[in-house]
Amino acid sequence: MTVNEESDQLYVYGIIPASAELPAQLIGIEGSPVEVSRFDDLAVVVTPVDPDAEIGTPDNLLAHSTVLDGIAAEIPVLPMAFGTIVPTAEELHETVLVENEANYLEALERLDGTAQYTVRARYIRDAVLGDLIEEDPEVARLRERISGTTEDETRQERIELGELIVGAFDRLRVDHAQQIIDAVSPTVEDLVEQEAGQVEDVVELAVLVHRDTVTEFENALETVAGQLHRRIHFQLLGPQAPYDFVGEQ
């Protein structure tokens, strides 16, 4: 479907090659149709929206990412930031496409045939703590010391135990994260490591995978997950739009 050039306001999802066709049955924000505005070699995926519409809702955020991920599963797409709105299709062409056409075409060519996947690995806390109690007498002693006491009674011991546990997770993380990276790296086009946010986080990776090697990538991940499954839980998300492999649009 191609957008009417006279539409007053457009919500923008991303940029695709003008020759590409959208996957069928995409549902955009506010439950509205997803359309295409074409200009030379580029096209922008949009939904006409009411100027008074409340765009920044959780449902619309989910719709935004679902549309982009659905497109990325079949054709290259450069995601736009959630909440991007332009007044008219004409301004969209002049301010978004014309000024950056060469860069967009180069990025779309680089991404052709690929999709992003996200790998998340987190420690199974009880399993790691059980090992620490067996391996470190000081951890075992402090655990026994605070058992059956109030926080005020054993505040210092609880602080010491927490520091020991965090330190142990930090030491384990270095080797386990590298093991996971080494396992999947040969099967992907590109890889970005995200910063760990929680003590139990081992690693979060955004990987760019060619569609022809998805099975190889999944097999490599399954192998390393099998090696580490007693201590680490794995989650794989995708295919996704290549959020981590394009600059800000």
TrEMBL record:
Coiled coil: none annotated. The keyword Metal-binding does not apply. Its main location: other. The keyword Cytoplasm does not apply. It is found in: Gas vesicle. Keywords: Gas vesicle. InterPro entries: GvpL/GvpF (IPR009430). Belongs to the gas vesicle GvpF/GvpL family. This is GvpL/GvpF family gas vesicle protein. It comes from Enteractinococcus fodinae.
